[in-house]
Structures are given as structure tokens and as C-alpha cells.
Amino acid sequence: MYNLSGKVAIITGSGGKNGIGRSVANRLSKEGAKIVVTDIVENPYPEDGWNGLKSVTEEIETNGGEALHILSDVTDSSSINKLIEKVIKKFNRVDILVNNAGAPANKDRVPIVDLSEDEWDRVLGINLKGVFLFSKAFSKQLILQNEGGKIINISSIAGKKGSATFGAYNASKAGVIRLTESIALDLAKYSINVNSVCPSWVDTERVDTYVEHLYKDNLSHEEKRKLHLSSIESSVPLGRYASPDDVAKAVAFLSSEESSFVTGASLNVSGGIIA
Predict the structure, then answer these.
(1) Catalytic: which of 169, 190, 215, 241?
(2) Number of neighbours of residue 6 by Cβ within 10 angstroms
(3) What is the DSSP letter of 126?
(4) Which residues contact 50 (CB under 8 A, 6 or more apart)?
(5) Pair 200, 269: CB distance under 8 Å
(6) Are the C-beta atoms of 100 and 146 separated by less than 8 Å?
């Protein structure tokens, strides 16, 4: 276990029931951190019994933690600045930022000749510009506090290896890796560690949107989902796809003092898929 007692962590893109953000929020809370969860809408993936950000905060509080939820747009610097102001007002500090917000798979998963400029801008705006803007605002606050801190960016193995029809996504995630390295060098003199986590396929709500674009035949949604996840399992040396908890474990390590000499790294959480 890692001791994050007294730390304040912000996790973006954390309103989904089956998402990485929820798992990270719960794991860091168990380690003792006070949690701020944020998303562009209160409930990005509505379903019966799930209330998005409110459900995440209630879950953390039920388990004895402290949590706050705030809406924000990672592509809007003023929205980010307002969030940080609210967090400082509530908790008096920040310590850990997890840039997890990601653009849902949509009409961007097409060959480059069919990829629209609007889709390119949407994916790069959320996946890469969002990391830049949030890291910039967060870093300024960490520097003011003068006590170090942690920034963890959720990239992907797609940032290390190209795939057909993934042009915008590949570019955005490769950009996150290089941006992580640059920010790490900028902030090293302030004892701020900046790293990225690079998962392979993770079983989240994003799979649900992706398979509807991938499979055009008359299969049911569940059949499409099972077919896709089965194909992923067969390609992973460890024999399974990643869970959100797998990613949360890596984030917990990078959020802790156990990783105090790790910065500018991109950690694969991929079951050996690109070893």
C-alpha cells in the first residue's frame, strides 16, 4: 500500500461507471488521498442506478474517504482554472493530477483519406490539448506551493505503435508521451514528477462505442463486444485484456513516494502486447 494521506488528487474524465477514472479515484482514496473527480458532464454514460460523478463521490464517501465533484472542460483553460480555484478553496492545496479524460471513439476511426478535420480536431483537442492545458494550470499551483507533486497522464500503447484507422488517436497519444517527457524536464527542478501510463485495450465504456463503429453486420451489441474482447485476449501474451484496476495500480505507484526518482517515463500496462 502507498501512503497518500493528506494529498489531494484531481482525476479528469472520471464520471463513467466502468471507466479508468472511477477506478483511479477509488484506489487513490484507499491510499488516503482526498479526491476531486471531474468530467465535462455530470453523467457521461447514463444507465439505471448510475449518476456519474455523484455516484463516484458517494462511493468514496461510503468507504470512508473524502471527495468532491466539479464539472470542467479540459479543452477550456478558464474552466480548468475555475476548477483549481474551487479545489484550493475546499482543500487548500493540490498534489496529484491524473489526466485521464479521453475522446470517445466516433467517426475518427476511419482511414486517413476519410478522416474529417473536425474529427481530428475533436480527438487532438481532448486527448492532447486537454493534457497540455490541465498540466499547465496545475503546474503553476504546484510551483506556488513549493512542495513537489505528481502529474500522471493516461496515454496508450497506441502512442507507441501505429494502427490502421487510428490516425488521430495514435497521433494524440504519441503526443501525450512526448509532452509528458517535455513537462517532466521543465518541472524537475521543482521536484514535480511527470509520467505517463500506456495501457492496451481496457474494458471500459469506450469499448461499447468503438465496437458499434467496428462491426457493421447484424450482430447484437453484446455479440460485438464479446467478439472484440476475444480478439484482444488472443493477442495479449498474458492472455487477457486490461481492467481499469490494472491502470489504477500503476497510477497509485506513480502518485506515491515510491516513484520519487521516476519522471519522464511511459509505463506500459499492456500484458506484454508490445514487448
Answers:
(1) 169
(2) 11
(3) I
(4) 17, 43
(5) yes
(6) no
> In the numeric block, which cell numbers belong to residue 36?
476531486
pLDDT at 220: 86
CB 30 within 8 A of CB 256: no
Measure the CA angle with vertex 176, ends 111 and 66; round to 5°.
Answer: 120
Active site residue 190: no
Alpha helices in 151-243, H assignment, sequence order: 167-187, 205-214, 221-235
Q: How many CB atoms lie within 10 A of CB 198?
A: 25
Q: How far is it, in rounded angstroms, from Cα 33 to Cα 28?
A: 6
For the chain, helix (H) and strand (E) counts, in that order, are 9, 7
Q: Is 48 helix (H, G, I), strand (E, B) or coil?
A: coil
Got the DSSP string for 54-93? HHHHHHHHHTT--EEEEE--TT-HHHHHHHHHHHHHHHS-
Kindly state the DSSP code that residue 103 receives in the 8-state scheme.
P
Q: Dihedral (C-alpha) 56, 59, 63, 66: value to the nearest 10 degrees? A: 40
Rounded CA-CA distance 45/139 in Å is: 30
pTM (predicted TM-score): 0.95
Q: What residues does 267 pair with on adjacent strands?
A: 197
Grid cell at residue 247: 491502470
Q: Which helix (H) or strand (E) holds 22?
A: helix 20-30
Q: Which domains does the chain have, with CATH numbers?
A: 8-202+243-269 (3.40.50.720)
Give tens-digit pLDDT for 82-121: 999 999 999 999 999 999 999 988 899 999 999 999 999 9
Count of all residues that appear for the chain in the document:
275
What residues are paired with 151 via a beta bridge? Answer: 97, 194
